[in-house]
Design a protein that fits this description.
There is one protein chain. The chain is an alpha+beta fold. It has one domain (about 5-170): Alpha-Beta Plaits (2-Layer Sandwich), CATH 3.30.70.100. The protein has 5 helices and 5 strands; from the N terminus they run E-H-E-E-H-E-E-H-H-H. It has a 5-stranded mixed beta sheet, sandwiched between helices. A hairpin with a 2-residue loop joins strand 2 and strand 3 (about 55-65). The longest helix has 20 residues, at about 25-45. The two termini are about 25 Å apart. The model has no long low-confidence stretch (mean pLDDT about 85). The structure holds flavin mononucleotide.
Length: about 170
Amino acid sequence: MSDNDQLIRLAYASQSASSSSGGGTAVDREIPRILRSCKNNNPRLEIGGVLHYGEGYFFQVLEGPAAAVDHLYERIAKDPRHQDVRTLERRPIRQRRFPDWSMKYVPMESDVERLLKRHKLERFDPYRFDGDTIEEMIALLVGKPSKDQEPDQDYSRQKKRGSWLQRLLGRA
Ligand SMILES: Cc1cc2nc3c(=O)[nH]c(=O)nc-3n(C[C@H](O)[C@H](O)[C@H](O)COP(=O)(O)O)c2cc1C
C-alpha cells in the first residue's frame, strides 16, 4: 500500500462564519447544504466521518485514504462558510470509526456538554481539544443516534480496499 492509500484520520476545528444566536439561523440553513456536498462527494473519495456543530464551532473528523483526505481538507479549509480552520490531529488509523457514514452529523446536546465539563472546558471550544478529548469526543459521536439521517455507506467488512468492480458489487 502506498502512503497515498494509507488510511488516515484528520480532525480539525473551525469557527462558523455565520453566528448561531437565536432560533433559525444562517448556519442551520448551511448545514443541510454542506451535508449534501458530503453525500455527493465523499463516497466516491472513500471518505467518511463525522461533523459536529455547537456554539459557533465546527469539529469534523475525516477518515479515508491519505491523499484523498488531504485534498478534500484543502478544499474544505478554503470554504468561506467557516474560518480559522485549525488541524487538531492527522494520523494513520487501522480501522474507520465511522464506516457507515459519508458524513454523520451530530448537533450539540447535553451529553457533549457533560464531556466538556469532565475536561474542565466551560464551553465547547474544540481548539483546546487534546488527543484524549478527541478520542472521547469520537467515542461519544460514534454512539449517538443521528436525526434525519441514515447510514449511507459500509466499509465495516472491507479489510482491504478492493477493485472498483468489487466496490460496485459490494454496494449494489
Ligand atoms: C464545516 C464544513 C465541512 C465540510 N465538509 C465537507 C465534506 O466532508 N465533503 C465535501 O465534499 N464537502 C464538504 N464541505 C463543503 C466544501 O467546502 C465544498 O463546498 C464542497 O466540497 C464543494 O463541492 P460541491 O460543489 O460538490 O458541493 C464542507 C464545508 C464546511 C464549511
